[in-house]
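> tool_call: predict_assembly(chains=two)
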Amino acid sequence: MLTEALVWVIFLAPVASFLLTGLVIRPLGSSYARLAGYATIGALGLGFVLSLWLLGSAAGTTTYDFAPHLWLSLAPGATIEMGLLLDPLTNVMLVVVTGVSLMVQIYSLGYMEGDESFARYYSYMSLFSASMIGLVLAANVVQMYVFWELVGLSSYLLIGFWHNRPSAAAAAKKAFIITRIGDVGFLLAIIYLFFQADDFALHGLNALHIPDIWEAAIPIAAGGAGIVAGGALLWLCLGLFAGAAGKSGQFPLHTWLPDAMEGPTPVSALIHAATMVAAGVFLVGRFFPVFSESEGAMMVVALIGAFTAVFAATMGLAANDIKRVMAYSTVSQLGYMMAALGIGAYNAALFHLFTHAFFKALLFLGAGSVNHAAGTFNIMYMGGLRKAMPWTYWLTVIGALSLVGIFPLAGFWSKDEILLEAWLGKGPVPASISLLVFVMLLVGVLLTAFYTYRMVHLTFHGEFRGGGEQELHDVEEAGQPAPVGVDHHVHLGESPWVMVVPMGLLGFCAIIAGWVANPIGVSSLFGVIPSHWLTDYFASGLHDGHHTPPFSILMAAISNVVALAGIGLAALVYAWPRPFTGLDPMLKAGPVHILLSQRYYLDHLYEGLIVGRIFYQIIVAVTDWIDRNVVDGMVGLVGWISRNIGGLIALAQNGQTQVYPLVAAAGGVVIIALYLILG
Amino acid sequence: MSLEAMLVVAAVLFCIGLYGALARRNFIAVLMSIELMFNGVNLTLVAMGRWLAPYTVQEQLSAVLTGQVFAVFVITVAAAEIALGLGIVFALYRTNESVDLTDAATLRH
């Protein structure tokens, strides 16, 4: 049994390490910088242990319900509080966030070694973890929004960590601005809730308290308060989803995620696995009882998610940067989660979020390890690293197969449940939509298998193609500027143990994380895990506990056959019968390849057309005209008036001696006249 | 002679003086007009002093003489004022070669 203070410690420990590393250790200079790493690791380790304890006891018999602490009482029915919302979603997320973050921090000790801003790196990392933990714990939407923005801020700081690189600064700015576009939706949703405070107060609810919002969305007939319904409910959900889409990189706000690769690789691992992008899915999951009351909102979430899953996967086919391939796979997998939420498969979506955190963090750490050896992220210049770094190779293969969804790895179980639920179509959306989502997700499986095999094959198999040194040589010959993050430093060999061990632990999780849920549904797995334990635990947080459908061998076979078909197809293109020669066979696809490698020209659309043309040439021109003519005109008018009033008064002050007594006499006459008239 | 007649004469004197003070351009004529205004006021003071003091207290001389004393004060101040005013006329004439008030529109020369 935990006390409330101990739960707060999960959040406060990284806050403390942020303050300690940022304010105390960093000014001490680089000779003490490693202390920053130890402080952060210690804080997150403590948080991880407490989170496990919390999950262990909350999954048993104990329920935690701590009264929130009043911060501001704005109106009856609108109170801002600082509270802890310890439902199954939060409890599992806490373990994922602290666990993955802990692995990443340990790995960073090796990866960031020798970086001149080592302490700054760890202070940002502490802030990032603390913000995400705060977000997960929040019981009040305003409290949640504070941490939501802090997550955005710290990802901005970390993506732009090497801020002397212009591309990193631009990527950080892009991430911040594009997620902010979505955040406006979230903010509008909060403002809308605030204006419903009177209705909430009538029912004795608080419009900003999350469980009260759930109740408000449920119709009276179903035992809820039924305050928000119909069109307003749809718009409320769409506002929340806009925020989630910005953070989780859903189409059309996905463009920042691939660029976010400019940050250090462990940061990418953290962003893509446990913190930033998970926040979007978490938000929709958090408000799932609200979404599930609006069929329209669920359809939007399902279709955008399924579309993103396929759309991002196609871009992954043509990317040459190993981290970009993984970024597209993250966007694609987040699409799976959103689609699953949209079709009502709440627990399957969160299960996938859970497993994805482990194998995606593993893949990114693998990419960092590869970069450590090859000096580049471009898979065209890698190859043959299998012999040099066997540990990294096998762990990346585990992560990759898990991502593809091959039995019996973690990703298989969760993806299989999503596909199964989409196929069954028992959610709140029409069966036809559910079937469409199913088909799109199955296509996504094929594409995922293809690009994942391509990435692994080009990185690890065949002959080594020169790494960063060769790439620099080639771009020099082509007369192009050297790409950032590429150096001559090529030393083929395994990374230090401090990097391999966290990868090994994550690899272990990527194997067993699926089994933790007992997805097959046997009555007791290994004698300890009850049937569908994790997914049913998630569902126990909902009012109408959604139950996981029984495991289907047929569906498992279909998804595995499709995945293996994708791998086989990729092997045909890249490995056999003609081995890879350094020229990507995808180039033969001509315009399709150009379209994919140019990311469907969406960046051009956003930056060239929308920002460059519409924003700068039209909106800015109009506001500039208004500024020059209306605003400046009003300022000028004030000046003109006072100048001319001065002139008017100066007419009387002309120095003519007799004018003054004349005015005085006239005043006297007026006073007398008034006296006579008014008595 | 009634009080009203006295006050009418005083008001006429005052207004003639005021008109002269505002309308004439010659500084000396303006000073003379101001003297007329003083005399209008003096006449009012004396008339009111006579009218306000009841007959029963006219034996007490001091009570009757209040208005007249005021008038004497005013005449004294007016004399001093005229002395000062004529001094200004001299100074004005020395700088402007004229005693026309419209020419005296500047504070320094």
